[in-house]
Target: GDP-mannose 4,6-dehydratase
Amino acid sequence: MAATQKVALVTGVTGQDGSYLAELLLEKGYQVHGVKRRASSFNTQRIDHIYQDKHENHVDFKLHYGDLTDSTNIIRIIQEVQPDEIYNLGAMSHVKVSFDSPEYVANVDGIGTLRILEAVRILGLEKKTRIYQASTSELYGGLAENKNAAGFYDENSAFYPRSPYGVAKIYGFWITKNYREAYDMYACNGILFNHESPRRGETFVTRKITMATAAIALGKQDCLYLGNLNSQRDWGHAKDYVEAMWRILQQDVAEDYVIATGVTTYIRDFVRFSFAEIGIELAFEGENEKEIAKVVACNNPDYQLAIGTVVVRVDPQYYRPTEVDLLLGDPTKSKTQLGWEPQYDLAGLVKEMVASDLEILKRQR
Ligand code: NDP
Ligand code: GDR
Model:
């Protein structure tokens, strides 16, 4: 390792963001250590392309088995790695699933953050190691009265989480801020709004939609069942958002930042945009559980669907006990202070996701 080479530790490296962040840090010349969980089947698909054989002379990407529920393991890894930067991305990140396993999500997403901060303190690395905490727009809970005068959520908006996930993440947010203030640690929250990519987990709504678009086009699926089509999300591209994470840790002063696009879109419209990518025009009709989407035009000779075919239905099993209706973030601070500028818009994101899912499904054929 070169004398000046920076060392980063990434929890959640096998996830969507962890994989893009690891790529970015390697490009920037870092030595990157990732924490992966032991699983009974392979869980490294997103990082296999950057894996380096341990037997090679110079290895910049290393994996460690670990779990955010295990303090001793976290302390040992941090002691061994002596990181300049820790990106705590590991989490049970599915909002709907958090209603089914609320205690687990509190342990991983809430107390897991404390375990990282305490490990750094126990090891006396407070002045060496900078910490990024993956906070989320779910902290705001979509409460209308908490938006700023312009109608956006920003760094000063009040929180009102609406799920066990959001409540666990609010602990992570405050404990990060508290350690910064109490022990003068460089520890920051990135309050990231939804961000997606071809590597998004298949049960999150965008990927579920783009996968189904491809599967329906190729005749592998008849209908896509979704939950609440009326919620609105501020969707960006994960590649842009990991760049913001890195920038947050390169400032002179540790602060918290909102990362968002400033544009919000209905789930229903994401469905429309996704099918439009393969030349299929949809019309929605009906309300609530009875809402459906039908094909009204088919402009692609490769993907012929009969006019009138119902391709989307609502299944209330996907509704959440409490929903976040609308998220819209104000990225002014991150743009001015971090110089962060996203490269993708929603159209580019949808295009890339649909193309990738078509490729994947065609290969499987
Ligand atoms: P993913 O769900 O794709 O990845 C989560 C990662 O955390 C995976 O590597 C997973 O491992 C790991 N993980 C889960 N449980 C544990 C545990 N007990 N100990 C250690 N690691 C664990 O999430 P994203 O990449 O989309 O998100 C990254 C982070 O950013 C998360 O903290 C998420 O809550 C937060 N966030 C995400 C946003 C988004 O829109 N994507 C927006 C705002 C915040 P495995 O692969 O084994 O399951
Ligand atoms: P979210 O993302 O809850 O915002 O959390 P998700 O894609 O799961 O849901 C977005 C919205 O779509 C509605 N929806 C459905 N959602 C899923 N998953 N499946 C469906 O079938 C479906 N139908 C409608 C949901 O009700 C919701 O309103 C994501 C995660 O990445 C979090 O970790 C992160 O913190 C936040 O984004 C910001």
User: Anything to note?
Assistant: The domain at 7-192 is CATH 3.40.50.720 (Rossmann fold). The chain has a mean pLDDT of 96. Residues 93, 95-96, 136-138, 193-194, 203-205, 208, 226-228, 231, 233, 267, 318, 320, 323 surround guanosine-5'-diphosphate-rhamnose (ligand 2) (CB under 6 Å).
